Amino acid sequence: MRRRVRSLKRRNASDDGREVEAPLPGGEEAGKRWNLWELEQVAKESGSRDPARDEERALLLLTLRQFAASSGSLPSEFDPLVRDVFGPTLSASSAEGRG
How many domains does the chain contain in total? Predict the structure, then answer.
C-alpha cells in the first residue's frame, strides 16, 4: 500500500520537464479531487461485503488523512489510487446521490 502511495506522489516528466498525464478510459476527467470524508462515508455504507476489501479501504483512508486538507479535499494525484481501491463502489454511490 505504501509503495502505491509513494509511486503516485512521484511525478512523471517528459524530456522537456513538462508533466505528462495519461488519459483515463471512458473520457473521464483526469485527476479528480476526492473528498476524504465522503470516501469514508462510501466505505462505511458499502462495508462488510468483503472483509479484505474493507481492510484495504480502511488502511488507505487512514494513510490519506495526512495528505487531505482540513475540508477533506485530496490532491488529484491520488485519483488513480482511489479509483483502484474503491472501484465500482464509487459509481454506485454517485448514482445514488443523483437520484
Answer: 1
